[in-house]
Amino acid sequence: xxxxxxxxxxxxxxxxxxxxxxxxxxxxxxxxxxxxxxxxxxxxxxxxxxxxxxxxxxxxxxxxxxxxxxxxxxxxxxxxxxxxxxxxxxxxxxxxxxxxxxxxxxxxxxxxxxxxxxxxxxxxxxxxxxxxxxxxxxxxxxxxxxxxxxxxxxxxxxxxxxxxxxxxxxxxxxxxxxxxxxxxxxxxxxxxxxxxxxxxxxxxxxxxxxxxxxxxxxxxxxxxxxxxxxxxxxxxxxxxxxxxxxxxxxxxxxxxxxxxxxxxxxxx
Amino acid sequence: xxxxxxxxxxxxxxxxxxxxxxxxxxxxxxxxxxxxxxxxxxxxxxxxxxxxxxxxxxxxxxxxxxxxxxxxxxxxxxxxxxxxxxxxxxxxxxxxxxxxxxxxxxxxxxxxxxxxxxxxxxxxxxxxxxxxxxxxxxxxxxxxxxxxxxxxxxxxxxxxxxxxxxxxxxxxxxxxxxxxxxxxxxxxxxxxxxxxxxxxxxxxxxxxxxxxxxxxxxxxxxxxxxxxxxxxxxxxxxxxxxxxxxxxxxxxxxxxxxxxxxxxxxxxxxxxxxxxxxxxxxxxxxxxxxxxxxxxxxxx
Lengths: 268, 300
What we know:
The complex is a heterodimer.
Chain A: H1 7-29, H2 33-38, H3 50-57, H4 59-92, E1 93-94, H5 98-109, H6 113-126, H7 133-157, H8 161-169, H9 174-185, H10 187-203, H11 206-210, H12 219-222, E2 227-228, E3 231-232, H13 234-255, H14 259-263
Antiparallel strand pairs in A: 2-3
Helix pairs in contact in A: 1-13, 3-4, 3-13, 4-7, 4-10, 5-7, 7-10, 10-13
Chain B: E1 4-5, H1 9-35, E2 37-39, E3 45-47, H2 51-56, H3 62-95, H4 101-111, H5 118-129, H6 135-142, H7 153-181, H8 185-193, H9 198-226, H10 230-235, H11 247-257, H12 261-293
Antiparallel strand pairs in B: 2-3
């Protein structure tokens, strides 16, 4: 009943549109530079893994991935652990300034990274965190913490309040109730929120690049090195690009059943 | 089901408040400070009062002209991508398969572009669109269409818009899909008994159910397109000329390129203010929509 005419065709066309540019990137990553520049080939005629080998053997390349993963993981852990109690508070209680606070958080999710690039640079240089994963992880909190609060609030509100009351009547202390009862109940919500923190921290570049120089350089910034005197190293660039897609693709697979609800921020 | 008043809840919110305040309020104070001053290097600052703001809001000056040009450009961009992505997202959501393995497969493919780092999104389209090595550019040029996003303004715009549609339509589609999933089958059965047309089902059942998620979708898409930076920067670098220089790109040029801290700070504040106002409008609409729906909530 809720299908529309020609839906298979529409969907198929759209999915092809999504996959084609990605295919082209993958295709190029297995080609040699000569093949890329000289001929237009729909698949690699002389497939090579040299581009990938270079990334995996050159420390300045693969350390970029490690640096990126470091700040993404730190950021996700911080975001979820501060957001959980706040989500509970917003869902269950009214308190002085709650609506304003919620709005203020929301507005920070929307704040343009370009505005904060320079002040963050000053701030984290001043406290000696510049060029560490912590600087980027903390900077990304500005949009990930509000997002996590927002998502988790939706999931906590889906838990009937009777459960809290019963637990307190049974003599559960608040921390014990929180860890033993609430957290398992919204485990899928926590998974979704963590996924989103991971995602937005992983895809952001402007702040990550501004706050690092050598030691904590993220992969996205390392990629700009493929421009050399001899021109662009397209194959290497494509291979590096493909490798940045893989972590995302892996995490989607784990949350695929919750992804739709997660994108609705737990509010369907 | 009214929420109980409990001021101790502040203790639960405090960690969030501290973390976000550290990242938001402290840097913003620096921005306010810079916006009132002028610098000639060497860390020497001179008081400039509201001078930068006057210049910024006056389109006849250099700074004001650049600000307004990039602002209109950005608003136009946001309007175009909303006009494409929202209807397309709804259509894609309505076309989703209902069960079986294909649902999971479609969801994963849809979500894929959302998880690609933004500069890689730019790189993908740069590679895909180049007339010499890219499939899209090559095919278009061989069809007799003279396509070159580096030198032609229209092509640059088209590339940036198609790239954004590619990148973010999935978000709208996934949100709408989540909304559609929450409609009980009984609604459709009732519609069938009443002999409702396909269009009537859409306007009377599906659209109202998607109302909330669509609001979130429009809010997120507007905000994210209004602060877009990385993707167009990688593909076009803001050009040809200034034709794809959006506000964030202009701001970074002034702040990190020219180190005109005062000008950049004034621009930042006005930029932030616009965002907060738009955000507030959406938030009010959203909470009102939420209040209307309270009675039949509970089933998440």
